[in-house]
Write a structure and sequence with these properties.
about 475 residues, 6-stranded mixed sheet, 15 strands, about 40% helix, alpha+beta, 14 helices
Length: about 475
Amino acid sequence: MSQLTALDAQFLHFETATNVANIAGLAVLDGDLNRADLQDLLEQRLPYVPALRRKLAQVPFGLDHPYWVQGEDLDLDYHIREIGLPPPGDDRQLAEQVSRLHARRLDRARPLWEIYLIHGLSGGRMGLYTKIHHAAVDGIGGADVLAALLDTSPQPAPPPPHAPERDEPPPGPVEMVARGLTRLALNPAHAVRFAARAVPHLDEIPVVSRIPGSRLVSGLARKLAGTGQAPELPPLPAPKTPFSGPVSQHRRFAFVSLPLEEIKQVRKAFGVTVNDVVMAVCAGALRRWLAAHGGVPRQPLVAGVPFSLREAGVEGAGNQVTIMTAPLAVHVEDPVARLHQVRHAMHRIKDRFSLAPARWLREFSESMPAALMGLASRSAFGLVGETVPPINLIVSNVPGPQFPLYVCGRRLLTHYPVSVITDVSGGVNITAFSYDGSLDIGVVTDRRMVPDAWELARHLRDALEELRNAEATLPQ
């Protein structure tokens, strides 16, 4: 039996016509892929990928979080679709098609995923767009789902020798209601525990960290608890930008690939990490974009940076993800000084996270009554987005395999993440995925706020070139 965690359910509940919780990827393949071949591959591998077999079973009266039930009537003709691009089939046309697909909500009466084969791409290539609901997987789980389609050689691997696991059926309606009422009765205790656990970490929680005195209280609580001296996090008021506030129904998507070797050369030259360079490249690109669209703020932007709790040893089903806030030094003109400011900020956050992984997002979700979560989530998103957005954008960097992969014998050339924007996170998401010597970056924006996502994508390349030029001036 598999019930959605409170955090899983949050990704369902905050959805509206404008806030959509699809996480996706755009793979570009060398050669055209036959739909029948892809269906055959999925039919072999679906039994071993639980996230693609499950659909939602709602609890009567919404008294508790839904359950996952294993679907027996999976309709691959519905889930696997085909689209053709008109000539010339360039990258902009591909991105425009993905923009439209990504903004559409998934049908909750079916397993929460879709795959689109996009034919007609120039150069003998094709696109493979895969989206799945964030309630079903987090970033790590999403990589596992993608891995179900991929092979390390042109010859598809045989199915695993072991029999696939099968989910236990969910409880019946009467037992669901009983469990929901029990959870409701225990909810005040969950709320009290969350409050007690949250006090030492108030300075990590967006919005709450801006309440006067919250940082003093959290520091005092850590001392009393004897947890040691955690690095202090600076106050981060998010400045107003053209991409702040509630998002519309429409998306823009663009992508760019940067040579991973060049990023590693910058890393080595300045004694930083690859992730520091990626964050600094994003800061440089955003500075250029802001300079052309209303001016650069006099303070850093605030980026929401997702972290996987699994990397910190947290186990369990469902989403195991949290988000930390980091300053992006767009206000610093010199690219090297900007890089070192980013490095300092990221190291402080990582040191803090290594001492006590931020679980506030998960624990906050667990403290809310399931029956009220939907209304509360949507109301909170709307209010925070309209008044005090805690962050300006989402920036994420996901390491991937550094060897070629294949789908039904076709080589995977690039894989661009296509992620989420919301009223709270703002109208820009920049997510990078390293693969086979390349850093593939997907840029998702709100069409009203950032009409030309390609402009921002171009600036990412410009920002890396700026750092490369600075590297060239270093003494040998």
